[in-house]
Design a protein that fits this description.
With 439 residues, the protein is of the alpha+beta class. It has three domains: 91 residues, no CATH class; 145 residues, Sandwich (Jelly Rolls), CATH 2.60.120; 162 residues, Jelly Rolls. The chain contains five helices and 19 strands. Strands 1, 4, 7, 8, 11, 12, 14, 17 and 19 form a nine-stranded mixed beta sheet that branches. Strands 3-9-5-6 form a four-stranded antiparallel beta sheet, with no helix packed on it. Strand 15 and strand 16 form a beta hairpin. Helix 2 crosses helix 5 and helix 4 packs antiparallel against helix 5. It is globular, with a radius of gyration of 25 Å. The relative contact order is 0.15.
């Protein structure tokens, strides 16, 4: 009888072991998730303030990781899942969220180090691998401890004697604490834009923001940019951004004083296509500069749109607003009047300037229109609002506002890009697009 009872107990234990999953461990379960979704930023020298490369580095943050993933604050991803499918979707699956939460709730055990996956390989200082060319500010820029700092424009001769096609580009700020954002433009040969600027010397145009004089508008093409949360520009084989022989680079630098003086020397890395691509990629923008957000308005609406005059393919979108930005939507309107939502960002975050790369390019035919609608919260209920008592208009500084729907298009590399849009619209990466008044 005793033997029979013992056998029954052992059998029951075996069944329990088979039905109860083993505890979640860092080595076997958590590390693969961190490698795939987190370590690009959470490693030394990158944007995140802590590293998640090893168990010892990650363990102190277990509870914070649990909270962030349960609230879907991390990884940052703001696209409404009901509209569009995106190749760079950072959001975690429910299974991954449950794994990370379970690990933290059960004491964050390490497990057997033999279960660790091989470590991801990173090129120190670059996410695109070792670049073919590096373009750097010639000298450091000194940022004061306080005060408003105008946009600085730095013209850097490219020195290319033949056309170059860029397949990958990445911005590396010299001082992330002081660089609010940066855009690298390509200034083609013969351009009069910033003609008063001396090569390598920071230059401030006489008027900035919405008050620019005629002739101060950008005449370069948007190459690559940096803002919190942004990722490198990586194009598919057969695509490229053109740098014509004799072109200059223009670094548009926006610095923000943070109470401690410092210096910055930003650089960009470029990887060139091995052969002339079939498709040229251009970054354009739908913009509205003519809005005026009333004091205290919790839901001010602004519209803008742009119409295509030739065929192209839509590749990616990047909505941009400032601290009062609330939500942003892109729509594709077909020539026959049909409309489709391409991207909806219901909770915009100024802290994370994310690009959304379509899983499949969308055809843009002649007469097709991209429409954008944005809402702003200028009320006291917005904790990010610098001053809810003031009317807000377009401006360069964070306490001003912007309404810009950036997007990338691909088209036949042999075509003139000016055929894509209406005559008054310049392919100028940040200063182009048709606008309609806000209400």
């Amino acid at each position: 009888m005793i033997v029979r009872s013992l056998i029954a107990a052992l059998a029951a234990g075996g069944i329990a072991a088979a039905t109860n999953p083993s505890p979640v461990t860092f080595s076997r379960d958590v590390a693969p998730i961190l490698q795939k979704h987190c370590q690009t930023c959470h490693r030394p020298g990158e944007a995140a303030p802590m590293s998640f490369l090893t168990y010892r580095e990650t363990r102190p943050w277990a509870k914070a990781i649990r909270e962030s993933v349960l609230l879907r604050k991390m990884p940052p991803w703001f696209a409404d899942p009901r509209f569009g499918k995106f190749a760079n979707d950072r959001s975690l699956s429910q299974s991954d969220i449950s794994t990370l939460a379970s690990w933290a709730e059960n004491g964050a055990p390490e497990g057997d180090p033999k279960d660790l996956p091989p470590p991801r390989k990173f090129i120190e200082g670059w996410n695109i691998g070792q670049p073919d060319a590096i373009v750097e500010m010639p000298t450091e820029f000194h940022v004061p401890a306080s005060g408003t700092i105008d946009y600085q424009y730095i013209v850097i001769p490219g020195g290319f004697t033949e056309d170059k096609w860029v397949q990958m580009a990445e911005v590396r700020p010299g001082n992330r604490a002081l660089v609010h954002h940066m855009i690298a433009f390509v200034r083609p040969p013969g351009s009069k834009w910033l003609r008063e600027a001396k090569p390598g010397v920071p230059f401030v145009p006489k008027k900035q923001g919405a008050g620019r004089r005629d002739g101060d508008e950008t005449e370069g093409e948007f190459l690559v940019g940096f803002a919190p949360g942004s990722m490198p520009e990586v194009l598919k084989p057969g695509q490229g951004k053109l740098i014509k022989a004799g072109s200059d680079f223009v670094f548009q630098m926006h610095y923000t004083a943070n109470g401690k003086a410092g210096t910055d020397r930003t650089r960009i890395g470029l990887t060139f296509a091995k052969e002339t691509p079939a498709e040229r990629v251009l970054t354009l923008a739908v913009q509205n500069r003519k809005f005026a957000i009333p004091p205290g308005d919790p839901n001010y609406e602004v519209h803008a749109d742009i119409t295509f005059q030739d065929t192209a393919a839509l590749l990616a979108m990047l909505p941009h607003m400032h601290l009062r930005g609330k939500d942003f939507e892109y729509r594709l309107v077909y020539p026959d009047g049909r409309s489709e939502i391409l991207l909806r960002v219901p909770k915009y975050s100024f802290s994370w300037q994310l690009s959304y790369y379509l899983q499949e390019p969308r055809a843009l035919t002649k007469g097709a229109r991209i429409e954008c609608t944005a809402h702003y919260d200028n009320s006291a209920n917005n904790p990010e609002n610098p001053d809810p008592t003031k009317e807000v208009r377009w401006g360069d500084q964070s306490w001003d506002e912007m309404m810009a729907g950036f997007f990338d298009v691909a088209f036949d590399a042999q075509k003139n890009p000016e055929t894509l849009l209406k005559k008054q619209t310049k392919p100028a990466g940040g200063h182009s697009g048709e606008t309609a008044g806000g209400n």
